[in-house]
Each structure stands twice: as C-alpha cells, then as structure tokens.
Amino acid sequence: MTLQIQFKKYELPPLPYKVDALEPYISKDIIDVHYNGHHKGYVNGANSLLERLEKVVKGDLQAGHYDIQGIVRGLTFNINGHKLHALYWENMAPNGKGGGKPGGALADLINKQYGSFDRFKQVFTETANSLPGTGWAVLYYDTESSNLQIMTFENHFMNHIAEIPIILILDEFEHAYYLQYKNKRADYVNAWWNVVNWDAAEKKLQKYLTK
Predict the structure, then answer these.
(1) Nearest one of 35, 64, 26, 69 to 49, comparing CA atoms
(2) Neighbouring C-beta atoms of residue 189, cutoff 10 Å
(3) Which of 15, 43, 130, 152 has the fewest CB atoms within 10 Å around its CB?
(4) What percent of the chain has pLDDT over 70?
C-alpha cells in the first residue's frame, strides 16, 4: 500500500525592494538574474528533489533505482542556497537607507570585541577577500560564548557550524557581482558596505540576546 505523505514545498520569498533599489552599488541586472534566476533555481531544485524523496519514502522507487546520497546532497545544496539567499536579501537596504555604521547592541558588541567599527570592517573585508572560491562571508552570534564571530562558508555548506545564528551575510558567488564588477570581487565587497541593512542585523541580534 502506498503511504499517504507529502513534503511541504519551498517558496521563493518576495524581494524586499525593487530590482534597481541597490544601484549604483549592485545593478538591477545583477539583482534580476541573481533573484529570478539563481535563487529561484535553488527553490525549484529543492522542490524537485523533495518530490523524488517522497517517491523513495513511499516505496514508489525501489532500491537500485535511486541515489539516496545524491538526493540528500542535492537537497543540502539547494535548501541552504535558498535560505542563505533569503538572509542575504534581508541584509541589504535600498540606496540611501543602508550603509554607514550600526547602532544599538550590535555596535556595542563590535566595539567591545573589535575595538572599533573600522577595525571590524577591515577584518570582515579581509575575510571576505580571502575566500578561495565561491561561498559566503558571515557574521554570526555564538550563543554559547556571546561572541560575534566572523567566518566563511565555502559553497553553500562547507565550514558550516551547527545552530549558527547569522547576523550579517555577504554572497560571494560570481553570480552576485560578475555582470557589474567582472573579476574584481574586492570592488564588489567594498561597494556592498554601502547597502548593508544595519537595522535588520540589529533585529536579528536582539532576537538571540533576549533568549
């Protein structure tokens, strides 16, 4: 008898602003391709693999007719790609509303641990520029140590830390910058600071500070 199960599908979240809202720092063409092409592709990829996993669970596919490792690895790549991109869009604000320096508890922690915002920005930028391939530069709040920690993810999941509360995230896949900055990733990283949504980062931090 076929099991009556169904995995809930993922949905592409709405972009928090218009495609040209981050210009001149990130062009509308990049946002269009990045969001409607790549991010949507991760959502579609995850849902396609979920449908295949459903068939495995129901017994519609017999052993030897599917690659469970391939399905799970593909799910990991696409689901993480989807979720990390959703965080990335939220961490940027339209031109004129982003950039500058953070305030509140986030500024206090940065000053306490890094001495100043400028020093923090330098270390984060150096970390982002040191990424050997494609991936993400991340600022997260470690609930165990109460540290604001800077790190990188290679691809969508390598170097990932369990239960990581991400406060700030920068996409360093080529699709995030190549149409505008070509191979000058460092120029993209510098431009990105002008659209960072510090209010959103503060709200994320507050959520974990109050737990």
Answers:
(1) 69
(2) 21
(3) 130
(4) 98
Rounded to whole angstroms, the Cα distance separating 145 from 163 reads: 13
Spatial neighbors of 29 by CB under 8 A, at least 6 apart, are 179, 180
SS3 160: coil
Q: State pLDDT tens for residues 96-135.
A: 899 999 999 999 999 999 999 999 999 999 999 999 989 9
d(CA 188, CA 53): 38
pLDDT band, very low/low/confident/very high, at 21 (cuts 50, 70, 90): very high
pTM of structure: 0.94
CATH of 28-90 among 1.10.287.990, 3.40.718.10, 3.30.379.10, 3.10.20.580: 1.10.287.990
CA distance 211 to 204: 12
